[in-house]
Amino acid sequence: MAQSQPTSARDAVRNVVPDLIGYTEKWLFGEAWERPQLSKRDRSLIVVATLIALGREKQLVGHLERALQNGLSKTELSEVITHLAFYAGWPAAMTAALVAKDVFEKH
Known about the structure:
- With 107 residues, this protein is mainly alpha-helical.
- It has helices at residues 8-13, 18-31, 40-54, 57-69, 74-88, 90-106.
- It folds into 2 domains: 1-37, no CATH class; 39-107, AhpD-like.
């Protein structure tokens, strides 16, 4: 089982909620992300869409980066944002677009 590398966000709160971070690394990124029924690419697509719809822009940063690493293109992620404008709302899509702009400029 491959665990994800710790992130600065996780490291920032590790001392505050050590069990939450432990569960995140062991169960979420260790167990759930490693299940073979969906590819990591598909899981990234699902998570990015969910975070956009829920307006979770802080978490969206890391998951957009992960999505690029997992094989999604900038064009595909742009299309997800555009498509979700009709389902999650224009403000959610515009917020996601601003987050994506910053992430894409770094890659």
